[in-house]
Amino acid sequence: MDNRSPENEGTTLKRPEAAQRFLVFSLGQERYAVPLLKVNEVIAPTDITPVPHTPVHFKGIMNLRGQVISIVDLRLKFRLAKADTGPETAIVILDLAPLSLGVVVDSVDSVIAVDSVDIRPTPDIECQIGTDFLTGVTRRDSHLILILDIEKSLNISDLKAIKHAAVAA
User: How many whole angstroms separate alpha carbon 44 and alpha carbon 138?
Assistant: First the structure.
C-alpha cells in the first residue's frame, strides 16, 4: 500500500537558502554586481588628483572626508570602450580591508537579493573582462548580471599604483 498523496508526489521540500545582497551597476551594456557588504557608499564624481607613472585605468586619488581613496575606472580596467562622464556616472567606494578603493561606473542600478541557488557558475566563455574576475552569474528579468570579485580584478600593477598613491598622499 502506497501512503503518498497525489498532491505531494514529485515535490521535495526545499530549504530556504540565505539570500546574498549585491549592488548592481552598469558598464556599457553589461551589468555587474559586487557584494553589498563590500560597499561603503556611492558618491557623485568629484575632483580626482592624477598620480604620475600609474596604469591608465588608475584615475588617481581623492579626499573623502579626510581619507585618501584610490580611484580605478572599471571601463578602462576591463578594456571596455571609454565613455564620457554622464549624469548617472558614480563612484562606488568599496571596503577591501585594509584599504578603501573607489571604482568609477556608468550607473548604479539597484540593490538585489539573490538566493545562493540562483547564482550559477561562470561559464567558460570569452568575454570583455575574462572570467577570472567573476564569481558567478545570475539573472534578473531578461538581463544577466555578472557577479564580480573586485579583489581578483586587481593585479600587481594596480596594487603598486594604490600603494604609490597612498605614499604620495
Answer: 27
| Positive or negative torsion for Cα 124, 21, 28, 42 | negative
Q: What is the pLDDT of residues 62-74, one digit of tens each?
A: 999 999 899 999 8
d(CA 8, CA 147): 36
Which residues are CB-contacts of 166 (< 8 A; sequence separation ≥ 6)?
Answer: 68, 70, 99
| Residue 4 included in any domain | no
**The pTM is what?**
0.79
Q: Give me the domain span that covers residue 163.
A: 17-168
CATH code where residue 58 lies:
2.40.50.180
Close Cβ partners of 9 (under 8 Å, ≥ 6 residues apart): none
As given in the structure block, the three cell numbers for residue 37 are 557588504
Sign of the dihedral through C-alpha 56, 168, 90, 155 = positive
Look at the chain and report how many structural domains it folds into.
1
- Kindly provide the b/e burial profile for residues 46-74, where b requires at least 16 CB atoms within 10 angstroms of the residue's own CB: eebeebeebeebbbbbbebeeeebbbbbb
- Residue 156 grid cell: 600587481
